[in-house]
Design a protein that fits this description.
The chain is mainly β. Helix 2 packs antiparallel against helix 3. It has two domains: 61 residues; 407 residues, Methylamine Dehydrogenase, Chain H (7 Propeller). It is globular, with a radius of gyration of 28 Å. The longest helix has 28 residues. The chain has five helices and 35 strands.
Length: 518
Amino acid sequence: MNDDHQLLPPEITWYQTPFFRRFIALVCPPLGLLLVWSDANCSRRRRVVATAGILVYCPFYAALLIWLAVLAGVADIEWEGGFGPSIVWHKTSPDYLVLERNRQSQREHGKVTPRSDEPAAYWTDFRGPRRDGCYDERSIQTDWNNGDPRLLWRQPIGGGYASFVVAGGLAFTIEQRREQEAVTAYQLETGREVWAFHYPALFSEWMGGDGPRATPTYRDGLVYSLGATGELCCLRAATGEVVWRTDVLKDTKAKNLRYGMAASPLVVGDQVIVLSGEAAPGNAVIAYDRRTGRRLWATLWDKQAYASPLLATLAGQQQVLIVTAGRALGLATDGSKVFWDYPWKVEYGNAICLPLIVATNRFFLSAGYGAGCALVEVNPAGTSFQAREVWRNRNMKNKFNASVFQDGFIYGLDEGVLTCLDARTGERTWRGGRYGYGQLLLASRCLIVLGGEGELALVKATPESFQEVGRVQALEGKTWNVPALADGRLLVRNASQMACFDLRDRGQNHFAPATPRR
């Protein structure tokens, strides 16, 4: 071997050439900086500079890649209730072509014949007959270890965030179908569409999405629905025939709310009470004759929020409990006076959750956006009433999923995590189980939780600890809609699917039926 032989430098590959590195640095600086950082001959100083550059450039380029993926239809952006948007493969929205084919197929099988043995109307209002999320019509199946809950049917549905009400074997809701809102009736047992009433209306908002928000209300053979743009309709429950209709926003000379009209109509005696929108002086709350649609009265100057009103008796006085954009108040059922009020301001005016009655003179308020929760007591004060704050903290933050109450304890989703509070003190007894921004009901001393991604869970309603009994996947995609429960059938939906589960007790119940009342 020749001692004078000089070793040649190793061959430089194409990706190590200065030209390629400059090109990469120009087209994609983070990748170019990564190549610099990974170079074995790179000095410590250059590596520190490259690391800083990667941290600066990466967020921008990640956003660019996401934007390109959205443009290409590979991914989408969806607001699921948290502090920012989520990247999803498929946005939860209706497939109108599939929906129309499904309904056409149902029509080809002939008309639905109503049964004569349907149970009496029970789930007639948003979140149940008292609007408190409590089901006590009958006991439900609470052993989910043997294939329960049994799926009865699943099918496509239009968009929106409304829930169902049930009467006469029919389930009623309101949904978005292309450029129209549709009030619809489905046979509870089979899911077949019985009728649909359409009218031109499309509310679209980039964070919340398209479609109506308010659940219809049923009373004495009539269905009352409020669309996202203010269309109030009274329809015959059996046929969908229009009895009367009016435009609430036009009638009250109000602007629509940022996220659309979302408060369900409230029937009190012979009147249907609805909340208006923004800048409706003296017309914030309005009542119509529920049979004729004649305007009866209007009152209040408050900008409204997104929480449905409810009928309550506090301190012996029947009243309409309303949460506006700036306060909670007790309004006389004829609109003649405000009995009391309590300051309750949520950031951006996003008061969404219904109040929860926890005693004969106490109710619970909760909201996200930094508001937290409070227990308010109403007492007589001379010829009127006074609202007093019992406690307030941030142990429960219901963003748009109201809590339920049983035996002195409040159960709810605290920013997506199931939580139990002692109603007397506001102290947290447990917090466990992440379900996202879903909804929950109370039945047979259990919590029926419909999670924000469509999972359905059963949890024991006990203050001792978090105990999940079972879980199944009920729907696909973002699910904000409140479940409905009637005659042991659980109805769930989101903006693309609806389903029905049989929860009727078949003699295997391990827990006591019926939730004790306050």
